[in-house]
């Protein structure tokens, strides 16, 4: 299912990562390097599988165990962002 950044989120890249402000809840978040990479991939790709594939190519380097860990971590991060209303998942 396609992913998009919520229209209620204002975000920008900073020296510490990506800063997020949810205009409906008033919540602020700052993403670390890994979260920022995932966020940027959501902004550009909007699909779970390509996000996992790009991060696995960059970090796992054909190591299946690390690839599985990346998959789990990305799914957990995306689930958390969806739950908080920062990222939206749409039916195709």
TrEMBL record:
UniProt protein name: PqqD family protein
Gene source species: Nonomuraea typhae
Classification via Pfam families: PqqD (PF05402)
């Amino acid at each position: 299912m396609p992913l998009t950044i919520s229209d209620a989120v204002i975000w920008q890249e900073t020296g510490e990562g990506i800063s997020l402000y949810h205009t409906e809840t008033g919540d602020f978040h700052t993403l670390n390097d890994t979260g920022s990479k995932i966020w940027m991939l959501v902004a550009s790709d909007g699909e779970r599988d390509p996000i996992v594939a790009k991060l696995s190519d960059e970090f796992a380097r054909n190591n299946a165990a690390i690839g599985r860990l990346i998959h789990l971590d990305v799914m957990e991060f995306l689930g958390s962002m969806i739950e908080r209303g920062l990222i939206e998942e749409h039916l195709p």
